[in-house]
Design a protein that fits this description.
Blueprint: H1 3-58, H2 63-85, H3 102-112, H4 127-145, H5 150-162, H6 170-242, H7 249-265, H8 270-284, H9 287-303, H10 310-326, H11 332-352, H12 357-360, H13 373-383
Length: about 400
Amino acid sequence: MSDSHNAIVAGVVVDQTAKIRQEGLTTAATAALGHKLSVTFWALGVLLIFGLVVTIAEVRAHYAAALLWALASLVVGIIGGFLFAIPRVPRSSISAKDPANTSTTSEMSSQSGIGADGGFGLGINTNLEEISDWLTKILVGVGLMQLRILPDAVRGIGYYVGQGLGANLETVASGIVIYFLGLGFLGGYLLTRMFVGPAFRLADQATRSGLEERIEQTRALAVALQDNSVINSDIGTAVGELNKPDKPPARIEQLIVTLREHLKTAPLHRKLNITLARLYAEGQRNFDESIRLLYEFIDNKKSAKQEKDRDTADAFFNIACYYSQKLEGKSGDIRNEIEDRGINAIKKSLDILPQNAYDVAVDKDLVELLKSSRLQELLQKVKSKVPKPGEDKPEPINTAPEIRPEKA
């Protein structure tokens, strides 16, 4: 075993090992995240229930008002926690992958939303992020500056809220507001980091993936159109050479090599396969290679679930033409075997496209095969069921005597 082979095997083993480790880490991380989420939910739920129970126990006379203030403080805290934890949208989340395609990307930037540098160019609305940034800076800055008056502010809130809860409940009111405000901030922050952030990221990734897919599809379509244009041009050149009376072997071989290369990327191209078969048959008198090539084309059509279309019928028709040309100068069992194969190819063509029966009768490449009485019977049978192209099948004449109803 060579060193290069050992290196390849070692590389595959390393890649598979890394993949297994990555999958294991992913599974472990997912399990750990699920556990942390469960613990977080339970802790927040317990703290919420505890606060509500204590609030009702302390303010029995006006517990409805106390619960209203508690929920209001909770909502304000959740909003604050959300604003502090809101995720930031990356300004350049798509990196340039292929420097050679920079010009192509630039040309499509105006339609796809991705700039030439690979940056994310949809113009995602980041107003909420900017508001969050402003508010957090303002709140932190003002809070630090006004930290000395914080006790008076807490007493003021307790006095204001306590008036609606009952006598001597200012302290309880302050505790309710502070407790639920803090609980809401903590819950809003944690839930935003755990759910909203990943949700934003997944949404941006989905949008980015969709754009990348559209760009790749557009690029692939452009390449396919360009390749198809080149293929058609080379096919036209080959047909032109075949129509010339002189067919230099070197030129025919060059065209065969060119079309063979195209066949690697376009195995289902009808005209490419038929023209390449003509090069072998007319340029090199290699009918066996022409027949093999067209049967390979038919197999590819079957694999693509397209074996019942006109392309397949035409391929069988051309195969029959090459079998007919192989009949020249043949006799005995060899002629009978070739004749059987040619008639079988014509039958398969007529099964798909019966109208080909009218072309069989006039094709000069089928002269030898048309000498077969079996083929003539087959053609007559098909023609009796299928009208000639451009003509309607005549309706049978009713020769039965007219039956009139008997009179009463």
